[in-house]
Design brief:
Elements lengths: L1 H17 L5 H17 L4 H15 L6 H20 L14 E6 L6 H13 L5 E5 L7 H11 L3 E3 L7 H12 L4 E5 L8 H14 L3 E7 L5 H10 L6 E5 L8 H10 L3 E5 L7 E3 L4
Parallel strand pairs: 1-4, 1-5, 2-3, 2-4, 5-6, 6-7
Antiparallel strand pairs: 7-8
Helix pairs in contact: 1-2, 2-3, 3-4, 5-6, 9-10
């Protein structure tokens, strides 16, 4: 689906660049193609309208002439799509003696726990001392899942199967965790952000003071991405987005619009369930 969107964008750019005149018919055709491709990719309707309205406005502005108008229109198209769909950036870890505490957020089924194991494996293979910490005290299988994934991939894991309070769990292991360069923290999810979860995440954020707070979003989330990203943004600063389930059937546009809402870059996308099914931008 995203390949199809990319092809539509390329064709739109070519049409603008090669046009002798930017008349109404050409603009209407470009706008229709973009709207159809963006909506099929599950990009939020209001965001699609904002983009295409700007294209129409620039294309119809008689004050901008000839080549200047075409160049301006292509730049608007590029800049607005980048703002709409986000951009991929490197996750830059703190170097030296500084510790990296990366907290993962997301609702039920987003793929946080599996994603944490993938990232832990990625960094451990590159010589970093990594710890996985299970602070999802509500989903019964969460701690066991994290522990099994850690053992399978020879990663250190800190979970307390008896403790029902996430903050107490963190404080219990805090002294031991000082020996690790990278700490990857699994937090609780819900079907929606209720007051209990908001209070828990807020308390953890204050106590842990994470260097990164990453929102995990499934590629097939659709139009619900906008509200979910807004809800999390209201609790704490989202520094990056991870998109999971980016397989051949996922549309992806809904999750990508979460980047527009949080103003956060895409750090990586997960393309399957295996430990190495990950496309990640990172430079040591």
């Amino acid at each position: 689906m995203l390949e199809k969107l990319g092809e539509v964008i390329r064709k739109a750019t070519d049409k603008i660049a090669n046009a002798i005149f930017l008349d109404k018919n050409l603009l209407d055709g470009i706008v229709r193609d973009l709207q159809r491709a963006l909506l099929e990719a599950d990009v939020n309707v209001s965001l699609v309208k904002q983009l295409t309205d700007k294209i129409r406005k620039v294309g119809s502005d008689e004050r901008i002439k000839g080549i200047d108008k075409k160049e301006h229109l292509i730049k608007i198209l590029h800049d607005e799509l980048l703002a709409l769909l986000g951009e991929s950036k490197n996750l830059n870890l703190k170097q030296g003696k500084e510790q990296n505490r990366i907290m993962f957020l997301g609702l039920y089924g987003a793929g946080k726990t599996t994603t944490i194991a993938k990232i832990g494996n990625y960094f451990a293979k590159r010589g970093n001392k990594v710890a996985l910490v299970g602070l999802d005290v509500h989903r019964p299988a969460a701690k066991e899942q994290l522990k099994q994934l850690a053992e399978k991939n020879k990663l250190d894991c800190f979970v307390d199967f008896n403790e029902k309070n996430a903050l107490k769990t963190w404080k219990k292991f805090e002294a031991e965790l000082k020996n690790y360069k990278i700490i990857l923290i699994d937090t609780a999810g819900r079907h929606s952000l209720d007051k209990e979860l908001v209070d828990e995440i807020s308390a953890l954020n204050k106590e842990i003071n994470p260097t990164e707070s990453i929102l995990v979003m499934p590629a097939d989330i659709g139009q619900a991405a906008k509200k979910q990203s807004e809800d999390f943004k209201n609790i704490l600063k989202i520094t990056g987005v991870i998109i999971t389930r980016m397989d051949s059937t996922a549309k992806g546009g809904g999750a990508l619009t979460a980047c527009a809402e949080t103003k956060a870059p895409v750090y990586f996308i997960a393309t399957g369930e295996k430990i190495n099914d990950i496309i990640f931008k990172y430079e040591q």
